[in-house]
Fold this protein.
Amino acid sequence: MAELLRTPLVPAAMIRSASTGTLEVKEPLNFWCGAKVKPKDVKNAETVYEPATGRVLCQMVPCGAEEVDQAIQSAHSAFLKWSKMAGMERARVMLEAARIIRERRDDIAKLEVINNGKSITEARVDIDVAWLCIEYYAGMAGTLAGQHVQLPGGSFAYTRREPLGVCVGIGAWNYPFQIAAWKSAPALACGNAMVFKPSPMTPVTAVMLAEIYAEAGVPEGLLNVVQGGAETGSLLCHHPLVAKISFTGSVPTGKKIMEMAAKGAKPVTLELGGKSPLIIFNDSDMENAVKGALMANFLSQGEVCCNGTRVFVQRDILPKFLEDVVKRTKAITVGDPLLDETRMGALISRPHLDRVLGFVSQAKKEGARVLCGGEPLVPADPKLQGGYFMSPCVLDNCNDDMTCVKEEIFGPVMSVLPFDTEEEVLQRANNTTFGLAAGVFTRDVTRAHRVVENLQAGTCFINNYNVSPVEVPFGGYKMSGFGRENGQVTIEYYSQLKTVVVEMGDVDSLF
Ligand SMILES: NC(=O)c1ccc[n+]([C@@H]2O[C@H](COP(=O)([O-])OP(=O)(O)OC[C@H]3O[C@@H](n4cnc5c(N)ncnc54)[C@H](O)[C@@H]3O)[C@@H](O)[C@H]2O)c1
C-alpha cells in the first residue's frame, strides 16, 4: 500500500503570505483512503505552470493502473458505509464541508488563481458557487424518497431511490474547484462515493476539496483524487467497479468517454463545449446589452464553455453597439490576477494562448476586422513577463462561414455579426452542431419567450448572460452533451430507482 500523508496540501500561512510568482506546491497531489498519497512512478512527472508568470508551480505525476485501482477500492469501501447512512446524516457532514469552504474561501480562491490564472475576484465567486452547491445538495439529501403504489387485493409496491456506487468525475481546467464541487455534491448527497480526476493542468485545488470533505467527517475514501491525463482517465472509465462517469471537457474527448462507458454499459453525464449565440434586438437597453455581451465573452479570459461568442446584433443598432462594446473592452484591466483591481488574468498555457491568437490571425485572413485587442500582452510588472496574457478582442465584419464564428476558441475573442429579422437570426443562431447556451436581449417580453422557445440550447438567458445559480439545471443540447448538473433533476443522474412489489395474498400461479 502506498504511503499516506495527513498534513495539509498547502498550509494556510503559506497561502496567505504568497503573492504571484512565489508559491511552489511540493506535496503529493493524489488523495485516497482519507489522506494524500505519494505517487508511485515520479519519472512520468509533468510540469504544471503558474499561468501569470510561466514559472513552475508543481509536478503532476499521472496515476497508473495500480493507483487507480487503489483509489477506486478506497471509494468502494467508503460507499458501503456512506450509502447506509440516512440522508439527514449525510446532509450534516456535507453542511460542515460547505462551512469549511466558506471559512477558507479566500485561501482556496488564491490557490485557484495561482494554478489557473483567472482573476481573484472571479475565483472568489467560483468558490462561493462551490459551497452553495454543496449546501444545496445537502438540503436535498434528506428529501430523497420513493413512491408507494397501491395494487389490487391489498398488495402494494414501493420504490427506493438508491445510489449508483462509485462514480467517476473528470474535469476541465477552467473551473477546477467548482467542477469538482458540482460533481461531488449531488453524487455524495445521493449516497455515492467519487473518484475525481482534475485536468493535468490544474491538479491542485481538487485535493483541497478532498481534504475538506475528510475534515468534515465523511468516511475515509469517500472523495478521492487521482492525477493524470487521458491514460489515467481511460483507466478510470474502464474500471469494472465504476458505476457512472460524469465528464466536463471538449466534444472530441466526450465522445471517447461515451465509447468507453458503452463498453461497460455505464451511464454518463457529458458537459461539453459550445459556440453559443447571443442575440441583441434593436429595442434592447443598450447599456445592459453591452454589459451582457462582455459577461458573455470575457469571464475567465473567455475560457468558459457556455460563452456567447457569436454576438448577433440587429443592423440599425450595430454602430452604437460596436462603439460601446469596444470602449468597455479596451477598459478591461489585464494583469496580475491576484490584485483586486484586475479584471482579466492569464490564459491557461502558452500553447493555448498561441492557439487563441492563431484564431485571431485566421479571422483577419478570412476578412474579419479587429476592432480592439487580439494581441499578446506583456504586463509592465517584471514578474509577469513570462505569463500567458492577451488583450481581449472584438471582431467585426464577420460572417457565418468564418472559422472564428464556427469553432470554439475558448479565449477572449468576441465575433459580432449583423442581422435583420427574427426569423433569420434564429435560423443562423441554431446553425451549429453545439447547443450549450444562448442569450437574447430585448424589451419585448413576448418576443423574448418566443425566441428562447425556438433556440436549440440547454441553457437560455433573457436580458443577461452567464448567470448559473446552483438551484437551476445546467447542460447542453446537441453535441454540447446530455445529462444535467445543478438543480433538483441532477439527483436522477446520480441515483437509480428500485421497485419492490409486495404480495399480500396468495400466489396466483399459472403453473
Ligand atoms: N459544458 C460544461 O459544463 C463545460 C465546462 C467547462 C469546460 N467545458 C469544455 O471543456 C473544454 C476545455 O477543457 P479541456 O481542454 O480540459 O478539455 P479536454 O477534453 O481536453 O479534457 C477534459 C478532461 O478529460 C481528460 N481526458 C482527456 N482525454 C481523455 C480520455 N481519452 N479519457 C479520459 N479522460 C480524458 C483530461 O485529462 C481532462 O481532465 C472546452 O471544450 C470547454 O467548452 C465544458
Q: What stands out?
A: Residues 170-174, 197, 199-200, 229-230, 233-234, 237, 248-250, 253, 256-257, 271-274, 305, 408, 410, 436, 476, 481 surround nicotinamide-adenine-dinucleotide (CB under 6 Å). The chain has a mean pLDDT of 97.
